[in-house]
Write a structure and sequence with these properties.
Elements: H1 14-23, H2 50-57, E1 64-66, H3 67-77, H4 82-91, H5 93-98, E2 105-107, H6 108-111, H7 117-134, H8 144-151, E3 158-159, H9 161-172, H10 179-196, E4 204-205, H11 206-210, H12 215-237, H13 242-256
Antiparallel strand pairs: 1-2, 3-4
Helix pairs in contact: 3-4, 9-10, 12-13
């Protein structure tokens, strides 16, 4: 607006906002139609300007950010699913880290605390930047070494528990917000670690990863099992669709011989 604050509650792509400014003498938010002053402002990066990021959303200048606001804006800032974020905040553990005093809102000091929202934002933004630079990993069943190097630190041929956990979560499509699923994967890694870390140095080398019975083999087994469970579930939902049952049986055979179906829930 004229004072340099937010014109409305919505966040839109900066490229789209610039295009609106070029096309309209008085550009408006495409969602609520409230006018905004050109040029559109880029959202401050919380890693570079945490105070500016906080103030950008603290439009009333109260010194606090409430949970309802954050549930709306965070999925637009970092790549998290809005429903999963809402569920995670509803369980209370994550919100308790951000709001340790239990005020129901986040103060500036809590925002910058060791386990506060700023740290959470920085970790997710760093992960997003890395994913953009390095791109997606190759399919594990096709290129084991390429998959390993995608998740290991650049120039390093080993991974620790944290890197393995991140790689497993990403490969399984598990969000870091799904606490119970994350705990289950972490427990699986701890239970199997000594089988993978053959020299006991606390790291998994590329050779360890690719060895028979190593992490790569076990991840492929887990993927095959998960695919088989989804296929069986579809068979239960469509017991009278002969074509679907035939396709599902074929996919189960592929799982049994170690070939992962491209899409186990589609014909």
């Amino acid at each position: 607006d004229e004072q340099g604050g937010r014109s409305c509650q919505h966040l839109i792509c900066l490229t789209c906002a610039a295009q609106l400014c070029r096309q309209q003498a008085s550009p408006k938010c495409p969602i609520c139609r409230i006018p905004f002053k050109a040029p559109a402002r880029r959202l401050p990066d919380p890693r570079e300007d945490p105070g500016g990021w906080f103030a950008f959303f603290d439009t009333a200048g109260t010194g606090y950010l409430d949970r309802q606001l954050l549930e709306k804006v965070l999925p637009a800032v970092v790549p998290v699913d809005a429903a999963r974020l809402g569920a995670a905040l509803g369980r209370g553990t994550l919100w308790a880290e951000w709001d340790p005093s239990g005020e129901g809102r986040i103060s500036r000091s809590a925002f910058c605390a060791e386990r506060g929202l700023l740290r959470w934002l920085a970790e997710h933004l760093a992960e997003l930047s890395e994913d953009r630079v390095r791109g997606p990993p190759p399919a594990l069943e096709v290129d084991r070494e390429g998959w390993f190097r995608r998740w290991a630190k650049p120039g390093v041929s080993e991974m620790g528990r944290g890197e393995v956990l991140r790689a497993v979560l990403k490969s399984a499509g598990t969000s870091s917000l799904e606490a119970s699923a994350v705990d289950a994967w972490r427990e699986w890694i701890e239970r199997c670690w000594l089988m993978w870390d053959r020299d006991g140095n606390g790291k998994i080398s590329l050779a360890d990863f690719c060895a028979e019975g190593g992490l790569a083999d076990m991840m492929l087994q887990q993927s095959g099992l998960a695919s088989a469970k989804r296929i069986v579930r579809r068979m239960e939902l469509e017991p009278h669709d002969v074509a679907a049952l035939v396709a599902c049986c074929q996919q189960l055979v592929e799982c049994a011989v170690g070939v992962l179906p491209e899409d186990p829930v589609e014909r």
